[in-house]
Design brief:
Elements lengths: L1 H31 L8 H6 L4 E6 L4 E10 L2 E5 L5 E5 L2 E6 L5 E4 L18 E10 L2 E21 L2 E14 L5 E9 L5 E9 L2 E10 L3
Antiparallel strand pairs: 1-2, 1-12, 2-3, 3-4, 4-5, 6-7, 7-8, 8-9, 9-10, 10-11, 11-12
Amino acid sequence: MRKITLLLLCLLLQACTQTQKELGNSVRQAFFGADDVQKTDAQINSSPYASMYLRINNGAQIYVVLGFSEQGQQKWITHDRAMVVTWNGRLVKTLDLADNLLEVTNLQQDPLADIQHLQPGARWTRTLTWTEQGQLRAATAVSRFSRQPDQVLKLAGNPVNCQVWQEDVATTDGRHAWRNTFWIDRAGGQVRQSEQMLGAVYFPLKTTLLKPAR
């Protein structure tokens, strides 16, 4: 009987050893959240796909690739098939997130549509439609752009000289105000990094463009 008990104990310990790492990861994620995804420079540069890091609602950094580019809109796909859509670096729509940006109007007048001629004081008015904890929301927002000191980002092992633009946004009903920030490649004119809101002072998203589409 003692031998059988010892054998069962050994088998149990072996099973525990095999699952110890997974269990440790599960406990750590439960208390501290998932780890950020971090690709090596070689992995990024060797990939055939355009790619970026995405941080959604202050969660873990994830890696996404460009699924489609249609009519100037770039559609980025997550590993679980959610989608983030950008236009000239501007977040314009999301699908299958906890909450989603449904529509942004007047995109043709967005100063980011003509980055080479963006000037301090530029303004833009549009209507946003989004969900907030499952409830539909809408607001008309007015933006004003201001230039900040240039910065150098290191992306996929390469230094990228960027103009930094702040976009101060307020809704016309006076209820909400927030700030978006865009890091724009001085050479290529692309938004290489951004901090934006999905809705009015709700659900922040950070993007870091690692490998632009060719």
